[in-house]
């Protein structure tokens, strides 16, 4: 999808506007800190001027020094408190901005549904939701406050210097104007370097994830060294792109340092000539010029400090353009998905399906993963009445799993259509489709956590009684006693610590707890021993009661499921005969 530059600017402006609201406390603290800095400079200028005068006369009066010293100390403490509060507020603004943006992205992923994972690599989606949005922390916490403070605080300092030393204020103004010009020039290169760096990072993440998933195959075919070399090349590309970003940042910092050094030297030379011309005994020198010159010199770092923060945060601003190029296509896909679904008619149908029962119909469905390899499904048509079971039999590669993936919303047919209760599957939003569907595959998806959390994942708001009922129905209670902490035992990623049969029982318990009207079973007893398979199938028969069930299997034992059976071979239906038991016999 081609992204319009105007759309990127509009999205960036929206993020800026929303982030500025949360950054208001940072702006207040930064402005008050600038006022305190002006006060500190005035106190220090008076102290140094009196010390210089005392050095010539030999008379240092503590009564003159005490008030400015006390005021300086008070302002120093006040400024420290303001800066600390500003840092806390900036961190909170960054957290809020990232949380809001990540929620938008995740909602877009949910609206788009599982088809997104067929269109985009999971590593790319993860990099966007985690790394790319995490990189925007500086935009919300540093850039947005710095962009405003870079105008407010220097203007405040410039006004104070103009009152004391108009010529020094003119020098500061000229040197200060040169900084944004340099930032704009270097910013173009920074934006390009940032985009290239994130692209290199995404490529490395995707390659690394793919290789980890296929590590056994890589080792089996003796390609470990070759793949390691390819990963090294990708990592080296990321290193070079990162160094390019840093190089641009260093050039930007050098331009600001040069401007500040120029201002210091110019003001010092100008006032130095005035001191020499006025003479050491001049009342102009002793009364006004020395403290005002010192005041102007002391405020030079304070004038450039917000500009330095602005320069350091400029790279953070470049991140938002790169993020827009990644986020807007996703939001666009979600928007197109929502636009395709007629919201008003679909909602009542979805509520009816979820509350009661669902019928499924495939009408002339054809699909191909790769056109060069021919059709995976070829004009498949069948119907599953509500609360009935269909056993889909066939060898591996016949297209059984593809049919289930279509019902789950992972892929769309190339031709034909799929309906639930007469409503086109594409008209049902992914969240509603997920609510009405339970799926159990060959290997249940279990995550690191307690057994309780893994079962409640299906319905987090379930009561303890409902949870216990699901555990009994799935025969999970039969092995809870042997676990160290029962249902609160912590298991590893992928169900590490449980046997294959125990993990499958957890998946069945999830389905009982979810209580969805449509049950999809994709080779649920594969790789189980015959005894465990019989026990799992008994639980699944209880689970199938009152539900619409599609069971894809080539297991003879699974064909004992009551219901109609159809055979699928090379993507075509071969038979639409009687019950599964009759066909097996």
UniProtKB/TrEMBL annotation:
PROSITE patterns in UniProt: ABC_TM1F, ABC_TRANSPORTER_1, ABC_TRANSPORTER_2
Location within or outside the cell: Cell membrane
Membrane topology value: Multi-pass membrane protein
Name the record gives this protein: Thiol reductant ABC exporter subunit CydD
Pfam (any one): ABC_membrane
Location of the ABC transporter domain: 360-585
Residue intervals passing through the bilayer: 24-49, 69-96, 143-164, 170-193, 248-269, 289-311
Keywords annotated in UniProt: ATP-binding, Membrane, Nucleotide-binding, Transmembrane, Transmembrane helix
NCBIfam families: CydD
Domain ABC transmembrane type-1: 26-319
């Amino acid at each position: 999808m081609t992204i319009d530059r105007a759309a990127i600017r509009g999205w960036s402006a929206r993020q800026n506007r929303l982030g500025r609201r949360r950054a208001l406390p940072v702006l207040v603290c930064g402005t008050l800190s600038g006022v305190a800095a002006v006060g500190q400079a005035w106190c220090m200028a008076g102290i140094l001027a009196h010390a210089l005068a005392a050095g010539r006369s030999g008379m240092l009066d503590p009564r003159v020094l005490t008030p400015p010293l006390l005021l300086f100390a008070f302002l120093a403490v006040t400024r420290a408190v303001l800066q600390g509060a500003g840092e806390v507020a900036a961190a909170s603004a960054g957290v809020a901005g990232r949380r809001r943006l990540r929620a938008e992205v995740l909602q877009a992923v949910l609206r788009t549904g599982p088809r997104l994972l067929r269109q985009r690599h999971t590593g790319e989606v993860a990099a966007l939701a985690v790394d790319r949005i995490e990189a925007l922390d500086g935009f919300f916490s540093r850039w947005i406050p710095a962009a405003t403070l870079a105008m407010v605080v220097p203007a405040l300092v410039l006004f104070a210097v103009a009152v004391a030393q108009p010529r020094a204020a003119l020098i500061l103004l000229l040197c200060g104007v040169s900084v944004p010009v340099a930032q704009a020039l270097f910013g173009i290169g920074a934006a390009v370097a940032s985009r290239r760096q994130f692209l290199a990072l995404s490529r490395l993440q995707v390659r690394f994830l793919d290789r980890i998933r296929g590590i056994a195959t890589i080792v089996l075919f003796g390609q470990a060294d070759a793949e390691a070399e390819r990963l090294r090349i990708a990592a080296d590309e990321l290193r070079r792109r990162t160094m390019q970003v840093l190089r641009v940042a260093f050039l930007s910092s050098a331009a600001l340092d040069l401007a500040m050094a120029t201002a210091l030297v110019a003001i010092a030379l100008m006032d130095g000539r005035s001191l020499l011309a006025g003479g050491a005994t001049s009342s102009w020198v002793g009364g006004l010029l020395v403290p005002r010159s010192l005041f102007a010199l002391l405020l030079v770092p304070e004038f450039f400090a917000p500009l330095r923060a602005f320069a350091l945060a400029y790279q953070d601003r470049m991140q938002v353009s790169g993020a827009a190029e990644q986020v807007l296509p996703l939001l666009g896909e979600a928007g197109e998905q929502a636009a395709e679904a007629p919201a008003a008619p679909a909602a009542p149908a979805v509520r009816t399906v979820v509350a009661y029962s669902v019928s499924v119909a495939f009408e002339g469905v054809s699909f191909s993963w790769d056109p060069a390899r021919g059709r995976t499904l070829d004009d498949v048509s069948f119907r599953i009445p509500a609360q009935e079971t269909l056993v889909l039999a066939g060898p591996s590669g016949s297209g059984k799993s593809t049919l289930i993936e279509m019902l789950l919303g992972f892929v769309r047919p190339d031709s034909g259509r799929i309906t639930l209760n007469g409503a086109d599957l594409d008209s049902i939003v992914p969240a509603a489709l997920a609510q009405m569907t339970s799926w159990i595959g060959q290997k249940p998806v279990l995550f690191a956590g307690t057994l309780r959390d893994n079962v409640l994942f299906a319905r987090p708001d379930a009561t303890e009684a409902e949870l216990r009922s699901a555990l009994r129905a799935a025969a999970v209670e039969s092995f809870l006693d042997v676990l160290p902490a029962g249902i609160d035992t912590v298991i590893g990623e992928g169900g590490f610590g449980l046997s294959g049969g125990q993990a499958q029982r957890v998946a069945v318990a999830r389905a009982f707890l979810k209580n969805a009207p449509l049950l999809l079973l994709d080779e649920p007893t594969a790789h189980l021993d015959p005894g465990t398979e019989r026990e799992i199938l008994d639980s699944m028969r209880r689970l199938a009661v009152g539900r619409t069930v599609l069971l894809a299997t080539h297991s003879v034992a699974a064909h004992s499921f009551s219901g109609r059976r159809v055979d699928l071979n090379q993507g075509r239906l071969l038979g639409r005969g009687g019950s599964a038991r009759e066909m097996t016999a």
